[in-house]
Every structure is written in structure tokens, then in C-alpha cells.
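Postdoc handover notes: sequence design on the structure in folder B. Input C-alpha cells:
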């Protein structure tokens, strides 16, 4: 069971989480719960760090921001004891989560869960601090934003759990962000592949790395609300379901676009542009290269807005080296993505997507596709209009059966 920051935002919510954990224990389950930091406490710690230093040393920053999850676990353990059950709170390192040596975005390389198994065998409820581990150099590391999701899935793999439940402040995975589209519909189930695309394209329900790990290790995920007992959304193998054509819409307003003008159109130039960006940790996504004219071409690509300062610094040097004619950055862009495994066999989906944006007077600047996704880069000011228009055109507020399509269904877990 993994509980996010809004689920443990204050002591009252922590007490409610403790009751939910105890309820699962009373049903005969052996329970391991992963907790995030309370509310905005990680942001508060980051603010403190940047008050002390404009460029905090990464090792010490990890030492600082890993504190929040430990606080949540210790407080929840106290509440569980008051409810009459024994619990133990563990840091990521105590739980045996071993990572590489990259501070701030560490990857889990092993889970040595001996201490968790011993605690479960002794009848204890185990609470593990999410988002953190210990490196192979024995330093505290953190896994990046949303890293508690990855902690939970990794533990589920190591412990052979029947299911990994992700508790959050929404009822499940929706056809669109319900804060933007009031008629957005909760999905009963989606495939790993669809959830990967949704997470990669801006859905904040699950961390991308957590979904990747769940898919590779066949861990069933259940995304559900911390504030109700309702069933949420199941994420599992595609073969277990009948697929609707479209599962949902994701959007991301934290994108930026960079255009490099007048790049010499000859072999190896693209590599000389993008290799330094990769070496600097800049995450490039959508790329388009114009038709060559007079031996030169323009290259445009998108990247997270947070990476823009680094990209501009790198490209200032790279541009001179390759002989480009200038560069322009544009932070006022956003991405809208349509995702669905069923679109593999329906060629009309692409045309319909373009039609609805054209009808709404929304210009498309870059297009990117996969077998189950279409992404369009547009002006950020029109993003919410685009999401509502596409959601309405594809009838995603209606249930699939109402539209005469096959429903997105999934076998429920055994009793």
C-alpha cells in the first residue's frame, strides 16, 4: 500500500491512513505500506536548501529532503500502535533498497528485504519511507519526484505481493484530468503500455519509472482514492482486457520548444547537436527537422521547461561548433496526447484528432506518434480548450458500452 503526499498531508489524514492500514491487517493480510512526505514538506525542505546555497551539493540535498518520508512513517507507526497493532517504521536503507550513486535521480539496483520479511514474520505492520534508498557507496539517495511509487513497486516485486495499491487524492485513472474536463470518466482498467504513454505525456497519477518496473515484473497496480473505499483503476497486462479505441487524454504544460536555425544538412550534425544535450542530462522528446534548403535546415525539439537553461547553455557552444545560424527558445508551448491501444487498428483516429484541433482554431506545431499515442505540440494558452474539444469529439465522457465499443474491463483480484 502506497500513500501519496496529499493522503498524509496532516496528522488527521495520517491517522486515517493508519486506520486503513490496520483494516487491511484485520482482513488477514501481511501489510507493507510506503509513505510519502506530508503535503508540501519536500518543497519546504528544498526552499531551505536554496536559501542556504544557490547550488546545493547533491549528496547533502539528498540527506535533507529524505527526512520528510521518515517523519510520515514514524508518525503513522505511532498511530497504528494506538490502534492496538504493532508496527515498525523503516528508512529506505533499513528496508534494503539499494540504488546507484546518482543523487537526486537514483535508480534502484536491488532490494534486500530481509528485515521486512523478519518483521512480517513477527506479525508487525511495516512502514517504509518512500523516495529514498542507500547507494552502493553507502550514501543516502533519492529517486526523483514521484519516487515513492517506484519504491512501492520495487518492494512489491521483492516481496511477491499480490497487488501494489497506489492511494492518491483521485479515484483512479481518468479519461482526462477531471480538473480540466468535468465530464472525465474513471477507467476501470488500462494496460501497462497505455499507462506508460499517459505517464510519459503528462499524467501525474503514476511515476513513469514505477509503471516501467511494474510492466517488466508483471506487478498488478491498483490506483485508488485514500478518501473512499471505492474500487479504482487496475493497471495490468493488455491481454486480460477488451480494449476501447481510446483510453484517455494526457496533457503537459511544463514543456518548452527549442529551434536551431540554419544547421548544415550533412551526416553527423544531428549527433553533434543531441549528444552534448544527452551528456548534460537534458531530456529531449519531440523532434522535427525541416526540409533542407540551400544545404541548411532547421531543427526543433521539445524538452521539460526545467531543462531549458541547461539546454540553452549547451547549445550556445554547440551552435558555434556546427555552424548554425542561431537559436530560439519558446516556453509558451504545451503537449496534448491521445492514448489508446485500440487505435492501432483504426486509422481514422489520427485524422479525427487533427480535425477537432482545426475546428477549434488550434495550430499544431509538432506531431509525434507511436502505435498507441498521438501527441501534438500547441500554444499553452489553448491547452485546456484543446483537451476539452478532443475529449468531447471522441465521446470519452460516455461509457464505452454506451458508444457501442468494447468496454475496458479486467478480471478482479481473487477473493
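Designed sequence:
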Amino acid at each position: 500500500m502506497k500513500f501519496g503526499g496529499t493522503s498524509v498531508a496532516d496528522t488527521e489524514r495520517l491517522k486515517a491512513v493508519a486506520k486503513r492500514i490496520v483494516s487491511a491487517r484485520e482482513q488477514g493480510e501481511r501489510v507493507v505500506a510506503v509513505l510519502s512526505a506530508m503535503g508540501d514538506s519536500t518543497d519546504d525542505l528544498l526552499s531551505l536548501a536554496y536559501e542556504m546555497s544557490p547550488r546545493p551539493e547533491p549528496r547533502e540535498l539528498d540527506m535533507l529532503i529524505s527526512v520528510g518520508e521518515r517523519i510520515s512513517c514514524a508518525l503513522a507507526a505511532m498511530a497504528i500502535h494506538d490502534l492496538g497493532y504493532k508496527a515498525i517504521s523503516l528508512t529506505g536503507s533499513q528496508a534494503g533498497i539499494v540504488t546507484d550513486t546518482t543523487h537526486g535521480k537514483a535508480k534502484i539496483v536491488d532490494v534486500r528485504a530481509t528485515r521486512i520479511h523478519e518483521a512480517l514474520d513477527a506479525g508487525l505492520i511495516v512502514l517504509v519511507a518512500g523516495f529514498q534508498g542507500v547507494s552502493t557507496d553507502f550514501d543516502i539517495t533519492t529517486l526523483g519526484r514521484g519516487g515513492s511509487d517506484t519504491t512501492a513497486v520495487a518492494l512489491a516485486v521483492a516481496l511477491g505481493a499480490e497487488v501494489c495499491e497506489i492511494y492518491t487524492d483521485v479515484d483512479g485513472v481518468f479519461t482526462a484530468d477531471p480538473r480540466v474536463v468535468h465530464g472525465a470518466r474513471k477507467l476501470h482498467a488500462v494496460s501497462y503500455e497505455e499507462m506508460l504513454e499517459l505517464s510519459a505525456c503528462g499524467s501525474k497519477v503514476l511515476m513513469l519509472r514505477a509503471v516501467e518496473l511494474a510492466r517488466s515484473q508483471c506487478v498488478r497496480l491498483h490506483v485508488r482514492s485514500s478518501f473512499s473505499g471505492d474500487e479504482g483503476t487496475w493497471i495490468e497486462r493488455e491481454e486480460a482486457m477488451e480494449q476501447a479505441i481510446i483510453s484517455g487524454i494526457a496533457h503537459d504544460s511544463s514543456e518548452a520548444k527549442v529551434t536551431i536555425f540554419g544547421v548544415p544538412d550533412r551526416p553527423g550534425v544531428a549527433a553533434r547537436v543531441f549528444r552534448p544535450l544527452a551528456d548534460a542530462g537534458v531530456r529531449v522528446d519531440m523532434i522535427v527537422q525541416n526540409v533542407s534548403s540551400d544545404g541548411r535546415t532547421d531543427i526543433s525539439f521539445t524538452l521539460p521547461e526545467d531543462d531549458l537553461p541547461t539546454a540553452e547553455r549547451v547549445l550556445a557552444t554547440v551552435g558555434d561548433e556546427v555552424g548554425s545560424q542561431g537559436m530560439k527558445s519558446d516556453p509558451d508551448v504545451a503537449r496534448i496526447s491521445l492514448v489508446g491501444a485500440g487505435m492501432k487498428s483504426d486509422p481514422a483516429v489520427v485524422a479525427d484528432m487533427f480535425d477537432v484541433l482545426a475546428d477549434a482554431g488550434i495550430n499544431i506545431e509538432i506531431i509525434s506518434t507511436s502505435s498507441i499515442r498521438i501527441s501534438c505540440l500547441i500554444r499553452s494558452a489553448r491547452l485546456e480548450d484543446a483537451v476539452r474539444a478532443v475529449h468531447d469529439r471522441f465521446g470519452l465522457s460516455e461509457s464505452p458500452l454506451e458508444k457501442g465499443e468494447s468496454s475496458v474491463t479486467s478480471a478482479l483480484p481473487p477473493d
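Context for whoever picks this up: Confidence is low (pLDDT under 50) at residues 401-415. Don't rerun without checking with the PI first.
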